[in-house]
Amino acid sequence: MTAMEIGRVCIKTAGREKGKKCVIVDIIDKNFVLVTGPKSLTGVKRRRANIKHLKPTEEKIKIKKGASDEAVLKALQSNKDVTSSS
Asked: Which of 5, 24, 28, 70 would be a feasible disulfide site paired with 32, CB 3.0-4.6 Å?
């Protein structure tokens, strides 16, 4: 399992969104990734996050690099296992 990859569902471990699930949408560099909840589902806004503040889960959804919140939401809803534990 590659820990930090596009589509990986993670749990934020620091900050105001601590404990909430998010999805990696893009990899910025070796220290940062772009994540989204999306906000309408988990409350996590689309933002840059330090990989040290994320705990990857076994769950992964199929999305394209830089996918919109709508595309992520659609992918999450089609994968019932991921959304049932949010």
From this structure: 28
Measured distance CA(13)–CA(84) in Å, rounded: 20
Alpha-carbon span 73 to 67, nearest angstrom: 10
Note the pTM of the prediction, 2 decimals: 0.88
Q: How far is the C-alpha of 22 from the C-alpha of 41, rounded, in Å?
A: 10
Burial 66-82 (b: 16+ CB within 10 A, else e): ebebebbbebbeeeeeb
φ and ψ at residue 51, rounded to 5 degrees:
-65, -20
Q: What angle do CA 70, 76, 79 make, to 5 degrees?
A: 145
DSSP label of 35: E
